[in-house]
């Protein structure tokens, strides 16, 4: 028992009750006619217990179902690189050196269900909820710095192709590469994913990245486009497939266990938080579009600027209440942080809160893990499981659930700074971005990998592709050739050898 548990148990009446507060004096026997039954229906305690049990699960997340979480804090440096943070953003959490903001982080894998092995080749989620004084900011990122697609309309297809076959209920590389071989922009992500970076060793030694381009806005309303990064203080550690299989043979919860045990023993995981910054324009000098989430901004040209650090120092007290019900949204920003025009980000902004209203419920933001620590005072009312009335704690007249009002209703907040008012003009189209440059960064990544990473990448791709249909293999080799001739040739030769 932890100290906290002992303290709780010592000071409180431990009498078992039902949810109505009725003490339960017999929790061993259902109420029956005679000791052999039948059972009777006027048996409230049994009915409450069994019907609640029947409803213990909420729908799993459609993606990122398997996860682990922890509480901690973010400490601002007050600067972005060598400059005051205020030069780029008025977001309050970054302004003063040493300013602490509580956080909750959920790490995850993407494709399989809630108890799937944590050794699978899959991107890892790295979602952070900052409980700032201006309300919540969620940075819903991944461990890899890029994504498979750049248009959100493709997301359901991408996920369907990676999820188990709807007939056999097994993940099938033939379905995965059938889809991927039609998506040239995915080659960069595939190059990362099939290298050892596709299986992080644990969550503590894993990078995080916001992937999408966001904006920072200062007090004058001037915006810059930014990308966010978590750099683990303990370094990055990945596994080859053989190493992962060894772990998986003995433990399919190793990353959850590693995070929990490290925090229990006081070995608190820590990351430095960094940003890359560009002026807010199209940057025609670059051979890629800075809003394209399939691209990296070269760190040589756009250095990672430290802005703070994060420490995770407390495990959840209940997995379901805190980790399963946690709801992060790519569109949940605070003043001083803004969206960019990145189409994928805009699709995500709609999707997360939509699924959470269904998955957790209409009032998911009233749950303690999701509720802002700042004042919440809204005129949103009712719906399933309304837990309390948002505005009343702020002194709102309970008769007034609308705005404007002269009878004691809630009032609009003063403006926090100058509005940023980007000018948007153009034909409404369904069209790809013009600077797609789908292969260049994938080729650069291949050439930048160490020899061992490159060998592992080729082995993993050949192992996956050798069971695919010949036309899928051909399309994939065609794409990889365009990334880098050696890369494509090695995969082609590997596939030819596998046929012998
Ligand atoms: C159009 C593209 C995308 C769509 C529509 C989308 C949609 C979703 C949905 C519906 C969920 C489940 C949320 C829940 O039930 O609480 C989710 C979870 C998640 N997504 Fe995405 N996603 C997209 C792209 C991305 C990208 C690019 C990243 C990485 C930056 C990402 C990172 C995550 C993470 C980390 C979670 C799990 C959050 C948690 O721990 O609860 N997603 N996504």
Automatic annotation (TrEMBL):
Residues 1-32 have a biased composition (Polar residues). Its cofactor is heme. It comes from the Bacteria. Residues 1-38 are annotated as: Disordered. GO terms for cellular component: cytoplasm. PANTHER family: CATALASE (PTHR11465), CATALASE-2 (PTHR11465:SF23). SUPFAM superfamilies: Heme-dependent catalase-like. One of its GO terms (biological process) is response to hydrogen peroxide. This is Catalase. Belongs to the catalase family. It comes from Aliterella atlantica CENA595. Keywords: Heme, Hydrogen peroxide, Iron, Metal-binding, Oxidoreductase, Peroxidase. Its EC number is 1.11.1.6. Heme binds at residue 352. InterPro entries: Catalase, Catalase_AS, Catalase_clade1/3, Catalase_core, Catalase_haem_BS, Catalase_immune_responsive, Catalase_sf. The active site is at residues 64, 142. It catalyses: 2 H2O2 = O2 + 2 H2O. Residues 17-411 form the Catalase core domain. Decomposes hydrogen peroxide into water and oxygen; serves to protect cells from the toxic effects of hydrogen peroxide. GO terms for molecular function: catalase activity; heme binding; metal ion binding. The keyword Oxidoreductase applies. SMART domains: Catalase.
């Amino acid at each position: 028992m932890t100290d906290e548990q002992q303290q709780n148990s010592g000071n409180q009446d431990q009498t078992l009750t039902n949810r109505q507060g009725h003490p339960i004096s017999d929790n061993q026997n259902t109420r029956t006619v005679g000791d052999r039954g039948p059972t009777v229906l006027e048996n409230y305690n049994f009915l409450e217990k069994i019907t609640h049990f029947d409803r213990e699960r909420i729908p799993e997340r459609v993606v990122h179902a398997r996860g682990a979480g922890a509480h901690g804090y973010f400490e601002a440096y007050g600067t972005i690189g060598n400059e005051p943070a205020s030069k780029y953003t008025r977001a309050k959490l970054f302004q003063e050196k040493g300013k602490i903001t509580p956080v909750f982080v959920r790490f995850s894998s993407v494709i399989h269900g809630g108890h799937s092995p944590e050794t699978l080749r899959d991107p890892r989620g790295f979602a952070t909820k900052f409980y700032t004084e201006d309300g919540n900011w969620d940075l819903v990122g991944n461990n890899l710095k890029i994504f498979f697609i750049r248009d959100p309309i493709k997301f359901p297809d991408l996920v369907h192709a990676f999820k188990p076959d709807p007939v056999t209920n097994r993940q099938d590389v033939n379905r995965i590469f059938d889809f991927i071989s039609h998506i040239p922009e995915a080659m960069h992500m595939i190059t990362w994913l099939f290298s050892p970076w596709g299986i992080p060793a644990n969550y503590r030694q894993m990078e995080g990245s916001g992937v999408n381009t966001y904006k920072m806005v200062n007090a004058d309303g001037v915006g810059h486009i930014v990308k966010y990064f978590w750099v683990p203080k303990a370094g990055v550690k990945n596994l080859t497939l053989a190493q992962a299989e060894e772990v998986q043979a003995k433990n399919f919860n190793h990353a959850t266990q590693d995070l929990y045990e490290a925090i229990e023993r006081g070995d608190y995981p820590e990351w430095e938080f960094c940003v890359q910054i560009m002026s807010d324009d199209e940057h025609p000098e670059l051979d890629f579009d800075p809003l394209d989430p399939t691209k990296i901004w070269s760190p040589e040209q756009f250095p990672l600027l430290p802005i703070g650090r994060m420490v995770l120092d407390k495990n959840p007290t209940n997995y379901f209440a805190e980790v399963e019900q946690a709801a992060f949204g790519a569109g949940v920003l605070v003043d001083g942080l803004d969206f960019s025009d990145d189409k994928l980000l805009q699709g995500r902004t709609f999707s997360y809160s939509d699924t959470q209203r269904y998955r957790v419920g209409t009032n998911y933001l009233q749950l303690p893990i999701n509720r802002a620590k700042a004042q919440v005072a809204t005129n949103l009312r009712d719906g399933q499981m309304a837990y309390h009335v948002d505005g009343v704690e702020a002194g709102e007249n309970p008769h007034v659930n609308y705005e404007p009002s002269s009878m004691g209703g809630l009032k609009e907040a003063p403006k926090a700074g100058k509005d940023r008012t980007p000018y948007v003009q153009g034909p409404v189209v369904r069209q790809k971005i013009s600077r797609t440059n789908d292969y260049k960064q994938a080729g650069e990544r291949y050439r930048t990998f160490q020899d061992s990473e490159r060998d592992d990448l080729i082995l993993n791709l050949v192992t996956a592709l050798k069971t695919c249909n010949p036309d899928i293999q051909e399309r994939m080799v065609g794409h990889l050739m365009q990334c880098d001739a050696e890369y494509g040739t090695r995969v082609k030769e590997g596939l030819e050898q596998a046929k012998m």
